[in-house]
């Protein structure tokens, strides 16, 4: 519920206990509202369905409290491919990001870049 004219929303795990269809409807409504008011929404979701994932313009992926990706959704797979992590064809992007985020990414990125 929006109770002030604020233009930023911060939401944590709003899909807990909801089915994927309801989560999609909620995120889609938030997206439409944010675009109308010219605001920003930061939404933490665990394992979003592919159709819900596609609603996001940008992705912030955290691993052990560190940002490992922050940018446009359409470039996230390219970024991870450059870093040596390729999403299998049978796997959805959101599921891939969930799995890759539990790897020690900071160590892996440093190793790939020749820092270790």
Automatic annotation (TrEMBL):
It holds the Pfam family ABC2_membrane_7. Residues 47-97 form the ABC transporter family G domain. It comes from the Eukaryota. Gene3D superfamilies: P-loop containing nucleotide triphosphate hydrolases. Keywords: Membrane, Transport. InterPro entries: ABCG_dom, P-loop_NTPase. GO terms for molecular function: ABC-type transporter activity. This is ABC transporter family G domain-containing protein. It comes from Aegilops tauschii subsp. strangulata (Goatgrass).
């Amino acid at each position: 519920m929006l109770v002030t004219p604020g233009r930023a929303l911060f939401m944590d795990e709003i899909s807990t206990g909801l089915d994927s269809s309801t989560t999609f409807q909620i995120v889609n409504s938030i997206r439409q509202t944010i675009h109308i008011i010219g605001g920003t929404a930061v939404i933490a979701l665990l394992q979003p369905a592919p159709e819900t994932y596609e609603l996001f313009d940008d992705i912030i992926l955290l691993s052990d409290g560190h940002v490992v990706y922050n940018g446009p959704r359409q470039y996230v797979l390219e970024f991870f491919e450059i870093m040596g992590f390729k999403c299998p064809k049978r796997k959805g992007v959101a599921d891939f990001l969930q799995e890759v985020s539990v790897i020690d990414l900071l160590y892996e990125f440093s190793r790939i870049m020749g820092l270790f």
